């Protein structure tokens, strides 16, 4: 990708998560040639800020990479009031009542596949593909922070007020993004996440 | 801060922001790099006043700005050429100048190009956010765009001012006539028809007035897709030429999103992005595909 980056295609989100975790581990161990950014996404990992992409590509080709990401640390639990304006619509798309929709969401083990859209906005995988939902036909001009939304099979939590087209099923008081906190992002690629229903 | 002085904004112009070399290593959290769009001009301004390259400068847009230091400070204006005045008297552009305390330093409207850089010895000393003082207009990190009356701390000067008669610079200056953008094809050039790739190489594009720090938008022949459907989100880089559904290419600049779901037909090498940052709306754009 250009003269200073490599876009590694791995064919799936799980494999991208695994490759990302391994590349971060290799960097921490001082084994990875210098890169400025390691950016996982839906089916790729981007290495940006690479002085010699050709040499790095050869180095990568000579290595074995695990097919699955390590289990990682304990899950972050996000308390959610499941009272979002699109909960009924999502339940209808899933063919269940609202109570069961909440049960499905809270018993799913999620993982942050990648971030984007806004600082600290994670794309969480875990829901099966058949529970994917479309984005709203008309995005909302303002979605409040902490809103929990669905789009495709992803779940995401809005870190700050922004426009948004995801189907909103609830809201959390957890602070997703705080530049004065270390780390600023509550959810980073690889973080495991569970949602807990609260009233 | 260290009490090395304060710079008051008297006139912010169309858009004046604080910029340094940006936030590195946080793209995986969705944090754009940000930083000065014309990096060579930013670095030159810092060098002229004896700052390190990473010191924060003010990046102006088309109409310049006016500032007043509360005590004497050495300053330099680079980037888009423009008249410089100190208390109404002409002063040199592209050179270190001494601004007395309480004097008005006027950075005039650009004669050519878009972005000017005003460096002061010691740098603009606003509190860094995640390792950078840059204003990121996409995600709202760093100081807000400057408004009249804003007071910015000035850092302690790090070394003597060089007072050089002439300084070699990597800043290419504003493009005249047309903006030539070399393009390394891919990674998603195969998502477009051969005709689209010919149109990109031969077509006449113009810089859109919708351009901003996120991207240089172009108007011209729409690029026809060979692959329908949606590309899964993937990582983006500065210089990536993304093609949204409308088909008109966008060249990503410093505040670009870290991931995106529209195919990238090619990438403009970093060295060519300073010229893109200085391209005025309406200017002709020519993409020159390189060997991969």
Automatic annotation (TrEMBL), chain A:
Q: Which organism is it from?
A: Streptomyces pini
Q: What PANTHER family does UniProt report for this protein, alphabetically?
A: 5-OXOPROLINASE SUBUNIT B
Q: Show the InterPro entries listed in the entry.
A: CT_C_D (IPR003833), Cyclophilin-like_dom_sf (IPR029000), PxpB (IPR010016)
Please list every transmembrane segment annotated in the UniProt record, as residue ranges: none
Q: Would the keyword Nucleotide-binding turn up in this protein's UniProt record?
A: yes
Keywords, comma-separated and alphabetical: ATP-binding, Hydrolase, Nucleotide-binding
Q: What is this protein called?
A: Sensor histidine kinase inhibitor, KipI family
- Any one GO molecular function term: hydrolase activity
Domain Carboxyltransferase: from-to ranges? 1-187
TrEMBL record, chain B:
- What range(s) does the Carboxyltransferase domain occupy? 28-292
Q: Does the keyword Transmembrane helix apply?
A: no
Classification via InterPro entries:
CT_A_B (IPR003778), Cyclophilin-like_dom_sf (IPR029000), PxpC (IPR052708)
Q: Name any one Pfam family assigned in the record.
A: CT_A_B
Asked if the Swiss-Prot or TrEMBL record annotates the protein with the keyword Transmembrane, the reply is no
Keyword set for this entry?
ATP-binding, Hydrolase, Nucleotide-binding
User: What GO molecular-function term can you cite, just one?
Assistant: ATP binding
Q: What Gene3D superfamilies does the database record attribute to this sequence?
A: Cyclophilin-like (2.40.100.10)
Matching PANTHER family: 5-OXOPROLINASE SUBUNIT C
- Name-wise, this protein is Biotin-dependent carboxylase uncharacterized domain-containing protein
């Amino acid at each position: 990708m250009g003269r200073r980056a490599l876009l590694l295609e791995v064919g799936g989100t799980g494999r991208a998560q695994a490759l990302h975790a391994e590349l971060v581990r290799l960097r921490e161990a001082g084994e990875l040639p210098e890169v400025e950014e390691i950016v996982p996404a839906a089916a790729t990992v981007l290495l940006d800020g690479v002085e010699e992409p050709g040499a790095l590509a050869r180095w990568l080709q000579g290595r074995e990479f695990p097919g699955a990401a390590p289990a990682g640390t304990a899950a972050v639990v996000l308390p959610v009031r499941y009272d979002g304006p699109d909960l009924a619509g999502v339940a209808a798309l899933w063919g269940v009542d609202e109570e069961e929709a909440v049960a499905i969401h809270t018993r799913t083990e999620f993982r942050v596949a990648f971030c984007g859209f806004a600082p600290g906005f994670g794309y969480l995988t875990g829901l099966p593909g058949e529970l994917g939902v479309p984005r709203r036909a008309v995005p909302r001009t303002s979605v409040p922070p902490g809103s929990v939304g669905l789009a495709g099979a992803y779940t995401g939590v809005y870190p700050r007020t922004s426009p948004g087209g995801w189907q909103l099923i609830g809201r959390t008081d957890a602070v997703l993004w705080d530049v004065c906190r270390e780390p600023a992002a509550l959810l980073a690629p690889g973080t495991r996440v569970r949602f807990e229903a609260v009233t | 801060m260290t009490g090395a002085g304060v710079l008051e904004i008297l006139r912010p112009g169309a858009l004046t922001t604080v910029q340094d070399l940006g936030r590195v290593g946080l793209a995986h959290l969705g944090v754009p790099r940000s930083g000065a769009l014309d990096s060579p001009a930013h670095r030159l301004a810092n060098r002229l006043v004896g700052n390190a390259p990473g010191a924060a400068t003010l990046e102006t847009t088309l109409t310049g700005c006016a500032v007043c230091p509360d005590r004497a400070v050495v300053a330099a204006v680079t980037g888009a050429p423009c008249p410089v005045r100190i208390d109404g008297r002409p002063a040199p552009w592209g050179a270190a100048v001494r601004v007395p305390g309480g004097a008005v330093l006027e950075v005039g409207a650009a004669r050519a190009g878009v972005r000017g850089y005003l460096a002061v010895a010691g740098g603009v000393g606003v509190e860094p956010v995640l390792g950078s003082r840059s204003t990121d207009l996409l995600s709202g990190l760093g100081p807000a765009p400057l408004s009249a009356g804003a007071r910015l701390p000035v850092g302690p000067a790090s070394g003597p001012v060089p007072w050089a008669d002439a300084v070699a610079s990597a800043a290419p200056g504003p493009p005249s006539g047309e903006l030539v953008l070399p393009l390394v094809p891919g990674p998603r050039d195969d998502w477009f028809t051969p005709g689209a790739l010919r149109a990109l190489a031969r077509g006449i594009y113009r810089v859109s007035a919708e351009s901003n720090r996120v991207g240089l938008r172009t108007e011209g022949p729409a690029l026809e897709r060979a692959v329908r459907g949606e590309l899964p989100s993937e990582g983006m880089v500065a210089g990536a030429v993304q093609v949204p559904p409308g088909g008109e290419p966008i060249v990503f600049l410093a505040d670009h999103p870290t991931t995106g779901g529209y195919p990238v037909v090619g990438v403009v090498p970093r060295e060519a992005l300073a010229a893109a940052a200085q391209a005025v709306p309406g200017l002709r754009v020519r993409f020159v595909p390189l060997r991969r």
